[in-house]
């Protein structure tokens, strides 16, 4: 009798894909956080913004928020902090005073070019336990899982309750206002 894998069992939280990916992300991410905060004085969210702006000069904040999978308020706070740290520049468009474009400053570009190889090394070392064939499969599996998650999101999202993001507390107002 073959033993079932955690992905086949799904008997406990420990078996759930998202829990397992979260643990991996937490362990690997902690190293990146220490690099970002301890050596470079930026948060992981600020690093994400810098990384997404690299090679995409002139990106509007709304596009950045979408690509970063962050709400606009969190993106705005990260942008403001990075502008204050002189790592990015926000330029208002003359044709539309409400529109802005974001670019890396010379210091932001230098920081990215210094930090990125270190983050790449962490990724390479984590992936080092996989063969080249395993990595091809991993990339294929991740792409398929992403497509599946997006399809499921569109399918069930209308039936899911709205969130009120205050540490898991239920929204206490009228249900129709959710």
Protein traits:
2 strands; 178 residues; mainly alpha
Helices and strands, with pairings:
Blueprint: H1 6-9, H2 17-40, H3 44-53, H4 61-68, H5 72-84, E1 88-93, E2 96-104, H6 106-127, H7 132-156
Antiparallel strand pairs: 1-2
Structural features, described:
With 178 residues, the protein is mainly alpha-helical. It is 60% helix and 8% strand. The protein contains seven helices and two strands; from the N terminus they run αααααββαα. The chain has helices at residues 6-9, 17-40, 44-53, 61-68, 72-84, 106-127, 132-156; strands at 88-93, 96-104. The chain has a two-stranded antiparallel ribbon with strand order 1-2. A hairpin with a 2-residue loop joins strand 1 and strand 2 (96-104). Helix 2 (17-40) packs across helix 6 (106-127) and helix 4 packs across helix 5 (72-84). The longest helix is centred in the last third of the chain and has 25 residues, at 132-156. The mean pLDDT is 89.
Order of helices and strands: HHHHHEEHH
- Through-space gap between termini: 49 Å
* CA gyration radius, whole angstroms: 20 Å
Oligomeric form of this entry? single chain
Approximately how much beta-strand content do the residues carry? Answer: 5-15%
Which term fits the overall shape? Answer: globular
Main sheet? 2 strands, antiparallel
> Numbering strands along the chain, what is their spatial order in the largest sheet?
1-2
């Amino acid at each position: 009798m073959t033993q079932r894998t955690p992905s086949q069992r799904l008997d406990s939280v420990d078996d759930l894909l998202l829990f397992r990916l979260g643990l991996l992300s937490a362990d690997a991410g902690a190293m990146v956080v220490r690099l970002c905060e301890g050596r470079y004085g930026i948060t992981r969210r600020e690093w994400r913004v810098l990384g997404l702006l690299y090679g995409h000069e002139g990106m509007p904040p709304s596009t950045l928020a979408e690509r970063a999978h962050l709400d606009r308020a969190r993106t705005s706070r990260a942008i403001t902090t990075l502008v204050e740290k002189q790592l990015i520049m926000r330029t208002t468009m003359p044709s539309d005073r409400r529109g802005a474009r974001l670019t890396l400053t010379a210091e932001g570009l230098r920081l990215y070019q210094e930090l990125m190889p270190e983050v790449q090394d962490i990724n390479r070392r984590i992936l080092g336990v996989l063969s080249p064939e395993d990595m091809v499969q991993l990339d294929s599996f991740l792409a398929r899982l992403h497509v599946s998650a997006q399809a499921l999101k569109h399918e069930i999202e209308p039936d899911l309750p709205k969130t009120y993001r205050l540490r898991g507390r239920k929204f206490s107002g009228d249900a129709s206002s959710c």
